Amino acid sequence: MVRKKAPFPKSQAKPKPKPNPSGAAAKKHESRRPSNAERSAYFARREAAKVLRTVLQGDARRQAVASIKSLVYSPSVRNKKATLALVCQTLKHFAILKEVLESASVLNSKWKRQEELMYIIAYDILFGQDTSLVSGDAEKFLMRRKDAIQSALAKLLVRKKAKNVDDLVALYQPPGTYSYFPVFSAK
C-alpha cells in the first residue's frame, strides 16, 4: 500500500494567502472573462462594421458590391442574425448617429479609421443594449464619452424640435418611404 504524501510536511504551516491590494491596484488586477453573450456581441459588432463599411463604400461609389443580406449571409460571418439586425438598425439611424458623433467630437484621428465600428457602438449605446459594451478599446472609448454622446442627441432633438427619437428618425427619412406598413381597415 502506497501512502500519498501530504502537500505540506507537518512541521511546516500552510502558507497564508497574500492580502488583496486595495483601491486601483485591485481593479487593475481584477479581470473577469467575458460571458458568451458579451463575446458574441463583441464579434457581431465587428462583423457588422465590416458589412457597413462595404455598404457605405458602395454607396459612395454609386455602385453596390452586394446586398446587405448577401454580405451578412456570407460564410465568413458567424453571428448572422445579430449582425443583420445591427447593420439594418444602424443604417436606419445613420444620419442621426453621424450628426451626434460629429457634434460630440468623438471621431478623432485615431478612431476615424474605424468610423463604421464607432457608428455601430454608438447605436448600441444610444438606442440598443449597452449592457455588454465593455469588451474592446472602441467600446471603452465610447463608454467613457457616453454622457457627451447622450447630451449631443438631446441637443439634436431640441434643435430639430422632435419629441422623441422616432420623430427624429421620421425627419431624416426621404419623402415617400415608410418605416412601417400602414394598416388599412376593411369596411
From TrEMBL:
Q: Which InterPro entries match?
A: NSUN5_RCM1_N
- Residue ranges of domain NSUN5/RCM1 N-terminal in the record: 81-169
Q: Where is the composition biased (Basic residues)?
A: 1-17
Using the UniProt annotation, give all residue ranges assigned to the region (Disordered): 1-39
Report what the protein is called.
28S rRNA (Cytosine-C(5))-methyltransferase
Which organism does this record belong to?
Turnera subulata
High-level lineage: Eukaryota, Viridiplantae, Streptophyta, Embryophyta, Tracheophyta
